[in-house]
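Project outcomes to date are best conveyed with an example. Our students and postdoctoral researchers have been running inverse folding experiments weekly, and each run begins with a structure described purely in C-alpha cells. The record below, which covers 386 residues, was selected by the lab manager from last quarter's runs and is presented without edits.
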C-alpha cells in the first residue's frame, strides 16, 4: 500500500529544487504539461480515496440567523456533504449591487487552535472565527462577492469527526468540492466567477481544490506554496497524494495545475515560502508560459513578514479578485489606494454558530467517525453502481 510522501512533512530545500528541476524535464509544451496534470489529478483523487467520487446527496442547507452590517450581512450555515455529515460555516452576502454576484470560498488554516480545556462548548475559537478570517470575508462581501467560510473537518463546529481521523483528508477535500456545489446553488451567484483563497492549511485546500475542480475561476493560496514542505497535519499530508507507485508531485507542481486560470501566490520571508520568488514561482510561471498566460499568474512576496493572513497579505488578494472577478474596489478603497477594513465587524463566536441549544444539530446527524466513514463508503458504492 502506498504511504505518504515522507515520514516527516518536509524535505530539504535542495531536494525540493531538485524535484522541480526533474519535473520540468517531463514537459516542454502545453500538451505534455496537460498530460502530466491530468495524470497527477487522477492520482491525487485516487489517493484521496475519492475514486469513485461519492454520489452527491441533496445538500439540505440550513441557513439561520442574520446580522446586518454596513454593506453586507452574515448568516450561519450548514449543509450535508454526505447524508448526515454536516459542513458548518458562515455566509457573507453583499447588501447592495447588481446580481449575479461573484463568489469566493474562504477555507482556513490551523491558527487559533481547536477547543481548549477552558472552552467547554467543545468548539474551537480559531479557524473561521478568527478576526482576520472574518475581516477578509466581510470586505470581499462589501466589494460584491458572496463569500462562504467553513470549518475544516474536525474543527470549530465540525465535531462529528476528529481532526486526526483516518478519513480527515478525504472528508476535508470532498467538503471543499461540496462547498462549490453549495455556493453555486445560491440565488444570484455567477458560476463563472468563483474565487478561492485561504492561508496555511487553507492555502493547501485552495490549491488542491483548484487543481481538482475546474469550476474554480481564480485562486489565491496564501503562505503555503512550497516545494519542500507538504503541511504538518493529518489533513494535509497523511495520504500519499504527492507520491505513489505511479505518480510523483509536490505542492508547487499541484499549484501550477491551476494554469491557465488566474493564480496569485502570496509568500513571505518568515516561513517555508521564503524561496518562492526564486524557486517555486519560476516553475509555476513556466507552466503558464506554455499557455501564453503569464499575465494571469502573480507572486507577492513579503520578505520581512511571517506566517499569517494579515492586512498586507489581504491587500494583494483584494486587488487580484477585483481584477479577476470584477469586484468593486471603490466600495472599500481609501484615497491612497489601500483598503479600508474598518467596517468589518468582528462578531462574537457564539453569534456565528449554526448549531446551538435553540437550534441543535438535526437528529439524523451521524454520531462519530465510523458512521461518517460508512456514509462515505455508501456514497462511493452508490456512485459505482450508477
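After processing, the design step wrote out the following sequence:
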Amino acid at each position: 500500500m502506498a504511504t505518504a510522501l515522507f515520514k516527516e512533512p518536509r524535505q530539504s530545500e535542495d531536494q525540493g529544487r531538485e524535484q522541480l528541476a526533474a519535473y520540468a524535464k517531463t514537459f516542454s509544451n502545453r500538451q505534455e504539461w496537460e498530460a502530466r496534470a491530468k495524470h497527477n489529478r487522477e492520482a491525487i483523487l485516487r489517493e484521496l480515496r475519492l475514486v469513485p467520487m461519492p454520489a452527491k446527496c441533496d445538500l439540505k442547507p440550513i441557513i439561520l440567523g442574520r446580522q446586518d452590517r454596513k454593506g453586507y450581512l452574515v448568516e450561519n450555515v450548514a449543509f450535508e456533504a454526505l447524508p448526515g455529515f454536516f459542513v458548518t460555516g458562515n455566509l457573507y452576502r453583499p447588501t447592495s449591487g447588481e446580481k449575479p454576484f461573484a463568489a469566493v470560498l474562504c477555507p482556513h488554516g490551523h491558527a487559533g487552535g481547536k477547543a481548549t480545556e477552558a472552552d467547554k462548548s467543545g468548539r474551537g475559537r480559531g479557524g473561521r472565527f478568527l478576526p482576520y478570517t472574518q475581516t477578509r470575508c466581510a470586505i470581499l462581501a462589501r466589494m460584491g462577492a458572496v463569500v462562504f467560510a467553513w470549518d475544516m473537518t474536525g474543527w470549530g463546529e465540525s465535531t462529528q469527526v476528529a481532526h486526526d481521523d483516518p478519513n480527515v483528508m478525504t472528508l476535508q477535500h470532498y467538503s471543499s468540492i461540496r462547498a462549490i456545489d453549495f455556493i453555486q446553488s445560491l440565488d444570484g451567484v455567477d458560476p463563472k466567477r468563483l474565487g478561492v483563497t485561504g492561508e496555511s492549511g487553507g492555502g493547501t485546500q485552495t490549491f488542491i481544490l483548484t487543481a481538482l475542480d475546474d469550476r474554480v475561476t481564480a485562486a489565491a493560496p496564501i503562505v503555503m506554496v512550497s516545494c519542500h514542505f507538504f503541511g504538518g497535519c493529518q489533513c494535509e499530508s497523511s495520504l500519499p497524494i504527492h507520491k505513489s507507485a505511479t505518480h510523483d508531485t509536490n505542492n508547487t507542481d499541484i499549484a501550477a495545475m491551476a494554469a491557465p486560470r488566474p493564480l496569485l501566490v502570496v509568500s513571505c520571508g518568515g516561513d517555508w515560502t521564503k524561496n518562492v520568488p526564486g524557486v517555486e514561482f519560476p516553475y509555476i510561471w513556466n507552466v503558464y508560459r506554455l499557455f501564453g498566460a503569464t499575465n494571469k499568474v502573480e507572486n507577492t512576496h513579503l520578505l520581512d513578514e511571517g506566517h499569517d493572513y494579515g492586512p498586507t497579505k489581504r491587500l494583494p488578494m483584494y486587488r487580484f479578485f477585483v481584477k479577476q472577478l470584477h469586484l468593486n474596489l471603490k466600495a472599500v478603497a481609501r484615497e491612497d489606494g489601500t483598503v479600508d477594513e474598518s467596517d468589518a465587524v468582528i462578531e462574537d463566536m457564539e453569534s456565528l454558530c449554526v448549531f446551538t441549544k435553540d437550534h441543535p444539530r438535526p437528529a439524523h446527524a451521524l454520531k462519530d467517525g465510523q458512521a461518517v466513514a460508512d456514509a462515505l463508503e455508501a456514497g462511493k458504492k452508490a456512485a459505482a453502481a450508477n
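Confidence is low (pLDDT under 50) at residues 1-7, 115-124. The longest helix spans residues 30-47. The training component of this project remains on track.
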